Amino acid sequence: MEKAEKKKVFRRLLWLFAISYLLSNGPGLLLVNKPVLVGGMALLYVWALFWGVVQIGIILYAYFKLWKHEADEYEHTSAEPAAAGEGR
């Protein structure tokens, strides 16, 4: 992935993460005051769980698609590592 394309994807993920963070708090009283259960869980918990999964998905996508290759390409500039017992 080219640097310009990575930057574009990163910005989209950043916006998506910011929106999911704001939405993860939920509409508050509108969800709490309704005794609605979804799959045996309160609607507020389902709401928070959904947005938490979205945030984790964004982080994992960024790790595997944007950050991992940069770490793999990084080369150490230091000299050869010291032999066992040296430098202690």
Q: What topology does this entry show?
A:
Layout: H1 3-24, H2 29-32, E1 37-38, E2 41-42, H3 43-73
Antiparallel strand pairs: 1-2
Helix pairs in contact: 1-3
How would you briefly describe this protein structure?
The chain is mainly α. The protein contains 3 helices and 2 strands.
The overall pLDDT, averaged over residues, is 79
What is the SS-derived class? mainly alpha
Strand order of the largest sheet: 1-2
Count of helical regions: 3
Largest sheet data = 2 strands, antiparallel
Number of domains: 1
Helicity, as a percent range: 55-70%
Kindly describe this structure.
This protein has helices spanning 3-24, 29-32, 43-73, and strands at residues 37-38, 41-42. The protein is elongated, with a radius of gyration of 22 Å. With 88 residues, the chain is mostly helical. 65% of the residues lie in helices and 5% in strands. β1 and β2 form a beta hairpin. The chain has one domain (3-73). It has a two-stranded antiparallel ribbon with strand order 1-2. It is built from three helices and two strands, in the order ααββα.
